[in-house]
## 1
Amino acid sequence: MEKSPAEDPSKAGKTEQQGAEANAPKSGERPDQGKAPAPDHYRPDPQHERDESVIPAPDVANAKYKQPILAQPPDAPTGLRLEEQAKVAAGVTAVIKSMQFSWSEGGMSRGTKGLMNMNQKDGFDCSSCAWPDPDDHRSVAEFCENGAKATASDADDKAAGPEFFARYSLAELSRMTDRDQNNAGRLTHPMVKRPGDNHYSPIEWPAAFQIIADNLNSLSSPHEAVFYTSGKVPNEPAFLFQLFAKLLGTNNLPDCSNMCHESSGAALSPTLGLGKGSVTLNDIHEAEVILVIGQNPGTNHPRMLTALQKAKRNGAKIISVNPLLEAGLNHFKNPQDFMNPLRALGALMGDGTQITDLFLQVRVDGDMGVLRGIMKHLFEAEDLNPGRVVDRPFIDKYTTGFESFEQNIRNTSWEDIEEVSGISRAQLLEAANIIGTKQKIITCWAMGVTQQRQGVQTIQEIVNLHLMKGAIGKPGAGTCPVRGHSNVQGDRTMGIWEQPTKEFQDSLGKEFNFQPPYEHGYDTVEAIKAMYKGKTKVFFSLGGNLLAAGPDTEVIAEGMRKQKLTVFVGTKLNRGHLTTGETSLLLPCFTHLDVDMQKSGQQMTSCENSMGVVSQNKGVLLPLEGQMMSEVAILCGVAITTLGNKINIADWVAMTENYDVIRDHIARVIPGFDNFNEKLRRPGGFYLPNGPRERKFTTKNGMANFSTTELEKHHLEPDQLVLMTVRSHDQFNTTIYEYNDRYRGVHGERRVLFMHRQDMAERGIEAKGLIDITSHFKGEKRTVEKFIAVPYDIPKGNVAAYFPEANPLVPVGSVAKVSNTPTSKYVVVTVVPTLALNSTKEYLEARVAAVS
């Protein structure tokens, strides 16, 4: 057997030549998944009761007067300009914007080199969304506008070094907008804020590691530490991060997945046996019907539009279910068509490809009603056409629970379905007729579903639809949760989970010769509560921005202030770095596109995309001058300094010098990663095992399980509305690139609230009028001020605002059932003209005095 690259230094960082595509599955084929069982994290019932005690609502509106360091973005207007809502996504404008961002951040040379190597088989994985790359041929420009922005931001040639932090205090930095913080430049030197300081100042790496070690080793319990992770972190450092936490003795491993697709995993694991989607990119191309539910691909996953366009050209029908008719759900102009002589003129002059055949403008949190209505129609069609609509052979062979599910759907009244969804019975019949006799069906969903109160149950209804149609485990059919960050799925596979399985822990303990903890740790919501209540003393963040990403911004801020130590490993400044514990460390690391040179040569890392393909990151740009380190090197330095002789120091040194050593450990711990180093060097990477993809349902009973859910109706007070948070087109997750949202016609401003015109009229609110928004939860109120009302095509009774600006309205106690995901897609609010509109100097002075 050939030696692993870990044992042959001459192979370190080497890959097979791009273009060897023999292993790539052809359209309609199942990919080679290997023989190992699928590595599922089955979600058991929690082993401990979640903290149900009430955290008092913070004084959101007055927080800016109480604390010198702002946890919320500044509320000063930045210059709103409104245009018509766009009906077409991408096109020439997207190409121009991509180039502008790339060249303005890193310069023409660095920017272009980054773009040309992004998502290539011998390049690096885009650091934004987790949409998969083609298995076979890839375009020379295999990127989208938002990927270009993310890469341009990573390629930034400006430095935010010691001089920058000497110039600005933490309070002054907090008064910058989130855009200006990100655009300040790359972090280049390790920095420390000591007790009583109001500036970050330089520190040497060994001293920084010692501060972390001293604080961790002085804890009375390892559970007083929280280890938070961003979905941008590649597999290798993610594996080390969870290993370090468990060597310390805790499973306090909250991550961004707790706030996004946790509901997907909680729904898919018990029903299908794997908390991941079952389809491949080729399946999208083969599908006859695609449902896109609670997702805005034009902004959040733009390359998905290329796949939808290809499906449309192959004859697919697309049903879109969303409260907003987004540009990407309407029409798409593929920039790649400009390079095709047969399509260039049409792409330039026309409206592009129509994406949606049927648009269902659902009420916020009403998707379960839509699914119930479609399935009720399908059962009625089956009664008229026995054996042509419901796949009884599949149901009898592979599933359990069908009878209870069928009765539940048939017993649901049309009145309840229409009330919950806001969609008429006739419109739902249109959707059912499209699905009808088809079996090649794919359902895609994202945060618009997972962050509902009944997100888990809604996804279970998606699974029910697929099971009743036999639309899973074959080409062109299956489930497709679309992940939002480059490696958020891979981090979970690597063991970043507060509820690890016994099998995973046993394997990890055997590999590293220690007894890992088995009790459940804190997820993100529970970690926020624990920090707020002073139960923890150290918060260690590997990437990410919990302050801006999480619910109840001021609760998170208060929790951060109660920590003895906060540690932030990152690439650029964000607001979360400024609200800190007594001591705080800001540690600069490499990005996906930075060349990572270690003792054995250039290193590569890996990511897992939404469809279970693991592929490489190999940087192409020299890092800026400074003292940045790789995430792997930082974690190894922390582990060696903290744990000393309790670990095999030589092994941790070897992992720093050659990441192939890490991958050999992973290969022995996690099923599906056998021969990891060899398979990662294949052009395009490799597929992980996926049971549902092959109709192998690795649930407890070995069957695919129908679910019987409850359709809940919730009543609002006459003046109340339901708020959902969304992204703008010029942001990715919490990173703000600009103040614009081109597709929705918003320019120069982010503090806006999209409202139905009738809702505005009923409240005496004018277009562009200043408003205050108050959320209501269990008798508590949270208020944000000085938003701007924007009339928009949104269901009456619903409103939408951008996060992180609207996150202070999301109560930390308002979570989805089972998954404990914050309900950012269901916040009950009232809206009034701003009380501060006619504020006098005396009024403002009185407010300051009241909170002093």
## 2
Amino acid sequence: MRRTPAPRSPVHGPGHRRRWVTTVLMVLALFGSTALTGSVTATAAPRAWTPRPAPMTTPWTDRVPVDTPLPEYPRPQLTRPDWANLNGIWDFAVTSADAGRPASFPQQIRVPFVAESALSGIQRRITQNDKLWYKRTFTVPSGWDGRRVQLHFGASDWRTTVWVNDRQAGAPHSGGFDAFSHDITDLLGPGANTVVVSVWDPTQTGGQAVGKQRINDVTPHPGGGIFYTAASGIWQTVWLEPTAPAHITRLDMVPDLVNNRLKVTVRGAGTSGHQARVTVSTGGSTVGTATGPVGSEFTVPVPSARRWTPDDPFLYDVRADLLSAGATADSVGSYTGMRSVGVARVDGVLRPVLNGEFVFQTGTLDQGYWPDGIYTAPSDAALRYDLQKHKDLGFNMVRKHIKVEPQRWFYHADRLGLLVWQDMPSMDLRTPDAAARTQWEAEYDRVIDQHRSSPSVVMWVNQNEGWGQYDQARIANEVKAYDPSRLVNNMSGVNCCGSVDGGNGDVVDHHVYVGPGTTVPDAGRAAVLGEYGGLGLKVPGHEWYPGGGFSYEDQPDAAHLNDRFVGLLDAIREVRLPRGLSGAVYTEITDVENEANGLLTYDRQVVKVDEARVRAANRALIGASRSPAAPVTLPVGQNRSLGVTTPGLTNRYVRHRDGAVSTEVVDGGSGALLKNDATWRIVPGLADGSCYSFESRNYPGEYLRHREYRVYKESGNGDLFRADATFCPVRGANGAVRLSAHNFPGQYLRHYDAQVWLATPGGTHAWDSPALFAEDTAWTVAAPWAP
């Protein structure tokens, strides 16, 4: 991948405060205080503005301030006390894509909500033939005199050009998911200043990273599938910041747990001849401090470091000072979490490890869409809400799916303790040309740079299901070299949709709907399930397009959804975890437009599942990875009979008759034929030697086999037959054994009305009935009726 250096800007004019005041102000700014920001006054008389009606209202839709939306400090890992938020009402116009600046701006838009959204007040379809224009005036606070003024954009999709007082600020920025800035000091005048921004966004018609965006109608409509409404223009906070002429631009922090230290690189602009001092503290007490060169790595001691984990997301405070001839030229605040990430063999199995220990990573696919703001959450509380629901539901991980959120989202993940798998947003599905590849790789570098110090981020996911795929192996190697402190996933869903596995990276990642599938580690990579689930439940009154929702498996009601979902989590814990699976991503945390497979509705008004029950299942899964139970083994090469454990039916055993398998009462007085039919030879699994197959005693070469849910005694060959005839044992109550289908983990042998079926927890067939499910699927491996 092409590596781009950190941007540098010409600077002049220092301004300082006493250090203790600076520290207090930086802490307050980090937590979202707006009282400390410099005031920015719009000089034009405001015109009437109202939002458009949202297709669905979230709990925050009607609470978004008109003039000060998203007022929180936008860059929590590099804080300064003085800043000014430019979010709010801007003048707005749309022209043809090739037009110059319009003579007038007849509309108004609420920044930073995209033009397609209701919260912007525009809510119109934007195509590759359009160009968006924004305009507002501001006055620089008088307290900033003598300092440089930086104009920051959290993100703007896609090609963004900025003018201040009719003079262009820097080069146009191409990219929809990375922050960028311009030093506008030399463009400013006294009093009111005018900023004009143009944005051209071709969405999927261009070659750039777009993620799930597609040019569609902006109001609810049928169709759309797994792709959603486009998000064009400014979609993250726009803000001003005064800086010294020599100032810090970025902190790269990598914990080194082995040596109890923090590796730090302080990057800056105008810093020739300067040194950097970094101090790590907690509760106001210094833990360690060190001084080193700007732009080069040095280390800060962190003795007896408290580990950051999902259960204890402890964060240290960090301060970086820029020093020149003993004086402090600049100071910034930050934070870090001391943790390590890697892959190691645990009990002979390749596993991802956090702080040297394996913990199963269970999370959801998080698309980051909102019915009112589309790409932009209506408030910081809303942004945090989805992450908090992950914690409430017992998850310890989230996969941010082909979108990159504002830095405050990562801040919330860091503080809440969620492991983040961060996708690089994909290009369109077609194979990209050379220009698109160069742009995508450069933007990916910037995304990594801007989030490389967040402790929650544990894996970079390069590509997804082959969308815009190319050079998978090379990219994985280069991302790993660029950030060796994290796991790299060369392709999520290597088994899906024409994708090509690069064969490298730290994990092999399958997508299985509904799942959980049979993913296993390979020679050099741990096994993860990058997507599974997709269980759907439409909630009347909470559908984006009523009647238009789809899922990978519709559920008739909440009871079935709960049973089915918990059944999947239990299957991962009971069957797939012992056989090498190390992480799983459920699709998905919320409904999104016409996708109805969320655990929450799209408007975040309804949690569809039983939170306590799902949390318990997730905690049991995580606990099983920390304290694995001894594997269940069966006596290979010996004859056994499978007895029913359901109370009142314990004299019944599995037997075959005319090819079909049922249960029947067997006792000492039963005939020889019945006893032979009820006896099975246990052999290594035909499809997986770590599981088992059951061969008929009196019909050698014929096995218990499920077919279309019913269970038969059959012979056969081929991969399908071998998989259908293989069962993996799971520990049941009171020494009993449950038998899970090898190729359908989470479906179990069950007797129902004297017949034997493959039953699914939460399934909709009669044999899936929840009544006595656990008892009916538990068997004794008893002495054989026929030796």
